[in-house]
Predict the structure.
Amino acid sequence: MSVKQDQRRFRDIVKGKIKDNFKKYVTHEEMIGKRDQEFVKIPVPRINIPTFRYGPKQQGGVGQGPGKPGDPVQGDAQQGQPGQGQAGDTPGDHLLEVEVSYDELADILGEELSLPRIEPKGNKSLETQKTKYTGRRPIGPDSLRNFKSSYKEALKREIVAGTYDAENPIITPIKRDMRYRSFKTVPQPSANAVVFYIMDVSGSMGEEQKEIVRLESFWLHTWIKKHYRGLQTRFIIHDASAQEVDEETFFRTSESGGTLISSAYNLVKKLIDEEYPLDQWNIYIFHFSDGDNWSSEDTRYCIKILREDLLKKVNLFGYGQVESRYGSGQFMKDLEKAMGDEENFSMSRIANREQIMESIRVFLGKGQ
């Protein structure tokens, strides 16, 4: 079996482990802090490959030392000092951190939740062709010749032939040693998208509610990122007023004031009008709150902004109500009465972490 086949088999095993524990990964934060631009580090149960282990010479071993057939095997552990502490009855944690690309995570998410592909709006769904290098082959143009692979092939040939001289290690590749990069052309989305995350940070939104938002926004981002060449994220927090912040501040800010949701909607409207031409951008908005608003009058104003402005500009507006013991939940009840017939509007009630997966399905299930 080739090294590439081994690597593919290992990746399949890793993906299988992630699928087996997928709900845990969605509802816990093990991977959220371990990510870069293209990959996420995920802890999976360690995969041990059987190997022979050899002890030091002159210390006995298989077929060595005194003894007769049938004698019990005694190891150093029985001859040494006793260990300390009591024996446990549960297995230890054996975890391996594996790098998984956002694309692979998105594929798993799509399979587990049966999500349709996102269809960008209008002429913003153009695709370009991208050249992707996939391996090595023995023929090709000089411009694709890979020196390192060619050198390795020449070295292997000389070692097998017995002509390699360690005292004079000069390796001369011949034609059959040459290796060239192989490639294929794959379609790549060329459309751009921006996602606005809005969160209520008033006193009634506690740490547990913010952690739920953090987890859900990670998976929303992972799925949307798969479908666009460029994806920007903007973070808006609000209590009685709204402001744009960075991601870290978004999840750490706590305020004790009241809640005026329209302040956030007006800020997002302003940013879209100033920075995101509708013919060039696919726009997503996800708003998370525990459902408290300052007044029914401001709720009516929010509905007006949604109907007359935001929903005419966005691919999708998602409202997620993260339940807390202090929130009334009234905002969602009012939205249900007023917005139920809007195609690009979705609502989700998130009582706890266990409902994050269903909330993601509600938001992304329309393929918008």
Summary: The beta strands are 39-45, 95-101, 127-137, 180-189, 192-200, 230-238, 242-245, 281-289, 316-322, 345-350. The first strand starts at residue 39 and ends at 45. Confidence is low (pLDDT under 50) at residues 75-80. The domain at 190-364 is CATH 3.40.50.410 (Rossmann fold).
